[in-house]
Amino acid sequence: MLNSYSAADKVLLAVDCIIFGFDNEGLKILLIKRDFEPEKGKWSLIGGFLKRDEVLDNAATRILNTYTGFQDIYMEQLYAYSEIDRDPVERTISVSYYALINIENHNEELIKNYHAQWFSIADAPKLIFDHDEMLEHAIRRLRYRTSIKPIGFELLPEKFTMRQLLELYEAILSKELDKRNFISKINSLEILIKLDEKDMQSSRKGSYLYTFNKEKYEEKLLNDFVLNL
Amino acid sequence: MLNSYSAADKVLLAVDCIIFGFDNEGLKILLIKRDFEPEKGKWSLIGGFLKRDEVLDNAATRILNTYTGFQDIYMEQLYAYSEIDRDPVERTISVSYYALINIENHNEELIKNYHAQWFSIADAPKLIFDHDEMLEHAIRRLRYRTSIKPIGFELLPEKFTMRQLLELYEAILSKELDKRNFISKINSLEILIKLDEKDMQSSRKGSYLYTFNKEKYEEKLLNDFVLNL
DNA sequence: AAAATTAAGTGTAAAAAATACATTAATAAA
DNA sequence: TTTATTAATGTATTTTTTACACTTAATTTT
Questions:
Q1: Model confidence over A123-152: pLDDT tens digits?
Q2: Whole-angstrom Cα distance, residue B168 to residue B212?
Q3: Which nucleotide is nearest to B162 (CA to C1')?
Q4: CATH number 3.40.50.1360 given to A10-148
Q5: Which of A54, A58, B123, B222 is 20 to 30 Å from B22 by CA-CA measure?
Q6: Which ranges in chain B are annotated with CATH 3.90.79.10?
């Protein structure tokens, strides 16, 4: 019967995480070298299995936390991958999530323990299974989402310069942006607070630091913005 | 161990379909009155379970075909829903798909057999489980996707008038559009063929019929268009 | 102490895109 | 032949986007 509930076709559900980070070298992803079969020794997204009494979102944050020690990280579900032989060991459907990490604060210890490593998007190694497809999909989603939601800030430190923000968007969109036009577009959103503080690392003059004004953003609009960069 | 493959946590995977149709009354969805427990007699999306050796996309098309007789339908995966008690009978994760149907050709027989019925989006009944959330999610996705991909045509007959296309976009976006601006924006995409034929149903003068020029669209660009309506 | 260096910060004019808007055309029915 | 109905069409205005270069502030070098 069409709609019968039956144990016959239960499957394993995995969660794989595309973990994005950003530093002065550009946009990065965190990968692990698998220390178990199959594909032991190959590079892989960070993943795990959904537990019986766990929601997918929780599985994603749990897995992220296990490998990186991070909590309260922005994550978004992407897509369910279900090719029959995508995992050669057993039929496994994987639901991908992407995460945005402020790379400055990552937990070195945990990452080392799991042989995890940050790679520039551009020169990431070939990944196992369908993980390359997941990565590509995640980048597309990230591009779209950052153009309508203020999630880019998740990749930056609490306080950041306009240059950092510009370079972040350049990395995400992988194209050059005009500095003046970028700044005026960002300013027109009116969601940043310009601090009195300056960052003195990058120049002699020093550049003003900004923070994301989450309260203002939230009270401002329920709708998305449109950021045509 | 973190990454062990284990049968312990296998789950049922369902697929639920948000089936959109369009006619002169507007945008519609196809719902069924459940004839089995739980929630027997309530309105529901059309759904079913993933089979062991089946890919999600295939499950979605199979389920759609079973209820409507349709084949070769545009479908897109939306999202995986995994709340613990979303289905009260058993832990079930559901992956939603939306489908775009040319409502003129639907298979009346099959739809009647399954107590299926088209509802205007505006006055759809309360749905079971988390199906209302799925529907809302699907409308959002449909809005976005039709603004960058030529999938609106899937909801129209092979030959259609500009007025039909206009009203389709108005229904999807649920806002009024200026006729002249709409037509010039559509024309600027250069993906329609204006036929010599006219549709005489709607007026004395008759209005030209168009078809989507799929070949031209495909040779034209690998990228998406941007349709700011 | 002056000169050179470096990145920060800032505004405007031109081009392109989006919008608002009203009349004529074709035909069938009365 | 008059009336009624929807189809078809273009332009001027406003808004948005783009392209573009010099001055400022502070440090380092000479």
A1: 999 999 999 999 999 999 999 999 999 999
A2: 14
A3: D7
A4: no
A5: B222
A6: 11-148
